[in-house]
Amino acid sequence: MTTVNKKRKYEEENRCFRSEWEESFAFIEYNGKSLCLICKDTIANYKISNLRRHYETTHPQFSIQYPPSSKLRKEKLMSLKNCLQKQQGLLASCSNEDIRKIEASFIISWNIAREKRPYVEGEFIKNNLVDVINILEPTNEKLLKLITQIPTSRRTTERRISIINKSIENTLKYDLNNCTAFSIALDESTDIQDIPQLAIFVRCGSEEVHIKEELLDLVALRETTRGIDIKNAFNMVLNNFHLPIDKLVSVATDGAPAMTGKNQGLIGLLKSDPKIPKFVPIHCIIHREHIISKYLKFENVWNIVLKVIHFIRVNAKTHRQFKNFLEELKEDGDKSPNDISFYCIVRWLSVYNVLNRFNELLTPICIFLKEQGRQCLELEDKNWLQDFSFLTDTMQHLHTLNLALQGKEKTNVMNLSF
Residue 332 — pLDDT band, cuts 50, 70, 90? Predict the structure, then answer.
């Protein structure tokens, strides 16, 4: 029986580049290949027959002009190597400049996205940078050239923001899959186009007790905002982000029936879902604060305050007279307020600002009302003033609490004094 000799593969030959090939065939090793110093062509393998064929076929005159083993040949090969190194250094420098320009483009796009500015403002920012450099460093032409070459078009900015968004999303997915526990907060509201939007926030903690919180998703609901609609949107987000549902520890919502309903609300539906583990339902503290500010009005105080404010602010002439009156009372260096605040029922957190400003201007207000022929006896009643001071102090504590809750990674809420 005849045996068939198996042909050996090139990878199994373990060939390596030999230094004498540089002198013989003007080849050097470059990135795992044989590079010809004369024409810059590359040969994928280290076979002497391939190198000799290329040298004798493509450069037959080289050995005549530069005889082998001669000093002239060595100097020519050294010159070719130095030229190649300079070209590689130039390419590396250009590559680093391109990287810096792309990085600058990403920074501009990131700031545009963070400030919710139009994408076309990238060109506006670049033009401003050019003008600033022309003033501060007019002789730095290299920096000026780099800035003008930063890609900041609208489509480029859009692509950069999409890449940043994808990167943040992937990082968030990784953190959620590797966290020890996470909690969810949901808030449903309607935008200016009457479309209900469900904002879902997540807070997760690692084994090193590093807390991280992010906006997980913003889901547009269809027509209704029932508990089942919110739960369906919540399940969709869970599937999209592949959340480890067994690590869920709490769900925070507002006090709406669609959220907290025992049977048809979101909390009730989540508790009845066998796939959802046991969790702690939490009523959002900001919504509870809103309820306090809404119902803790002290109508005997608040009605008088609004009545006075409306008298001063509703009529333009009266408002101008009041502002001029305050200017006349001011002395040099006096930093007292120069106007009274207008109350807006939508901005419920402005209650403290209104009461505090009214308290600071209480004496001028009393004098101005008397000059206008308006009597407001409550402003001089001690019992009413006590109730007014109590309401102002209470709203001040709520205002302080709200400021402490603003921002990210607030983990010391329980240390606040109520």
Answer: low
**Residue 416 region by backbone torsions, left for phi larger than 0, else alpha for psi between -120 and 50, else beta:** beta
Instruction: Say which DSSP state 99 is in.
Output: H
65, 80, 103 - which closes a domain: 65
Q: How many CA atoms lie within 13 A of 386 on its CB side?
A: 3
Query: Do 230 and 279 sit in the same domain of this protein?
Result: yes
Check whether 136 has a pLDDT greater than 50: yes
Where in the sequence is the domain holding 228, given as residue range(s)?
A: 181-283
| 266 token code pair | 């979101």
Closest CA to 376 of 362, 366, 368, 385: 366
Token couple for 129: 């940078």
Contacts for 367 with CB less than 8 Å, ≥ 6 apart: 325
For 15-61, write each residue's pLDDT tens digit: 777 888 888 888 888 777 788 888 878 887 778 888 888 888 888 88
SS3 for 117? coil
Domain membership of residue 76 (yes or no) is no
